[in-house]
Amino acid sequence: MNTPQNFIPVWKDEYTIHSYQVDVSNNATLVVLCQLMQESAWNHAEHLELGFSHLNRKNFIWVLCRQLVKMYSYPKWGDIIKVHTWPTGKDKLFCYRAFRISDSAGSIIGEATTTWFVIDLASRKPQKTDSYFHLELPEDVEPVFPGKLQKLHPVSSAANTRSVQVTYGDLDINGHVNNVRYIDWILNGLPYHYLKTHELKEMEINYLAEASYDDEILVSSEKKEASHFFHSLIRNGDNTEFCRARTAWESRST
Q1: For 6-64, how does the pLDDT look when each residue is reduced to its tens digit (9 = 90+)?
Q2: Which of 29, 49, 69, 237 has the most CB atoms less than 10 A away?
Q3: Distance CA 176, CA 170 (A)
Q4: Which domains are delineated in the chain?
Q5: Rounded Cα gap, residues 38 and 192, in angstroms
């Protein structure tokens, strides 16, 4: 095992919430918070010599496949937040990473866990962790939530469906739809009145396939009860499912 010099086991970044990162309730959006967590994960991976620049030499890339985010409160325009992130382990195929978001007073306002794997860009096949992950993790590393994320159930009855088309601005450095765009489409697929009167407290998502430029995607939502939805994104034409998710909400206090 190799350990980078000046090894930092838990990475910390500080961010200011800007005016263009909040919604009509002056809360930072989940899309923005996931972008910031992704940025911190990128920074830490580079420090651990497991980042984009290192895997790219092997023609490998990281792929996010599962994610669970729980928000206890949301930062607002002008707030300063800290994002802590650390790897929590690996097995034969997957790597696991945790996140904790805190406000300027140090109170925890959100937590997340993620599951990743690496693919070869040429073959598109997943790679065993032993082929790229040579870091020895501290023995006392702990996840934020117990257990591992599991496969979500598909949407069984889509009462609400809208269509989106992948454009150039939806693509990431690898030429496929960035994972946060799926979150954006899912949330924007819900009725305006519901979004205005409810606050998202939890989102779990499975990323199943890569969407490409000009794909037409059907965004479907199934309401399970007053505060829970299941979601699915499927390509119109061949029914390829790109992702499925569940969301949990609370009524906003008036």
Answers
A1: 889 999 999 999 999 999 999 999 999 999 999 999 999 999 999 999 999 999 999 99
A2: 69
A3: 8
A4: 1-149 (3.10.129.10), 151-254 (3.10.129.10)
A5: 27
Q: Helix, strand or coil for residue 214?
A: coil
- Within 8 A by CB and 6+ apart from 37, the residues are 83, 85, 99, 101, 112
Rounded distance between C-alpha atoms, residue 111 and residue 117, angstroms: 21
Please list, residue by residue across 94-113, b when 16 or more beta carbons sit within 10 angstroms of its beta carbon and e when fewer do: bbbbbbbbbbeeeeebbbbb
Please give the structure tokens belonging to residue 211: 């969407």
Instruction: Please give the angle made by the CA atoms of 94, 96 and 97, to the nearest 5 degrees.
Output: 150
Cα-based torsion angle of the residue sequence 246, 37, 182, 128 in order, rounded to the nearest 10 degrees: -90
C-alpha 73/C-alpha 105 separation (Å) is 13
